[in-house]
Amino acid sequence: SVLRPSTLLCLCVPVSHSQITRLYSRFHSLDKGENGALSREDFQRIPELAINPLGDRIINAFFPEGEDQANFRGFMRTLAHFRPVEDNEKNKDLTSGEPLNSRTNKLLFAFRLYDLDRDDKISRDELLQVLRMMVGVNISDEQLGSIADRTIQEADTNGDMCISFSEFIKVMPGKAVFEFHFRE
Ligand SMILES: [Ca+2]
Ligand SMILES: [Ca+2]
């Protein structure tokens, strides 16, 4: 099968770097209210995000918990996760000292797209939800369920049937993360 469990996990941030760069340059044109902040509706007007199966989750990443406006600073901070690793020097995260686009931070960003209830674990259900969005309608629920099971089996080392962040890091192929295997 084309869908190997570990490659599936790599599909989690299916927005390309060039798409993000375009979004970045469009912040001001997106800001219809000209108040220096973007609403969810502003983001939903972006075609690349509108057609992206994980578009809503990626949009959510731009909004701090409980807020409905994304200011330019937060916008840039979220975008920084998508920059290629060689830009690291310009992207220092002052709080942790680690660049936002380091492998760990990129993985954490991806992990959070799955972990909807923010309990720091990806459950089978959360995995299934993402798989369903990614693969479309050509795969039956049964097949999808078995892909989810295999993915969890491959990643889960402590036997709780969930994928923790440390388990997630171990199964993600380094090269795939470094390059970000985006869907165009
Ligand atoms: Ca969870
Ligand atoms: Ca586990």
Automatic annotation (TrEMBL):
Domain EF-hand, chain residue ranges per copy: 18-53, 102-137, 143-178
GO biological process terms, semicolon-separated: protein transport
GO molecular function, one term: calcium ion binding
Subcellular location per the Swiss-Prot or TrEMBL entry: Cell membrane; Cytoplasm; Nucleus
InterPro entries in the cross-refs: Calcineurin_B_homologous, EF-hand-dom_pair, EF_Hand_1_Ca_BS, EF_hand_dom
Annotated keywords: Calcium, Cell membrane, Cytoplasm, Lipoprotein, Membrane, Metal-binding, Myristate, Nucleus, Phosphoprotein, Protein transport, Repeat, Transport
Major location category of this protein: membrane
Domain of life: Eukaryota
GO cellular component terms attached to this protein's record: cytoplasm; nucleus; plasma membrane
Protein family according to the UniProt entry: Belongs to the calcineurin regulatory subunit family. CHP subfamily.
Name under which the protein is recorded: Calcineurin B homologous protein 1
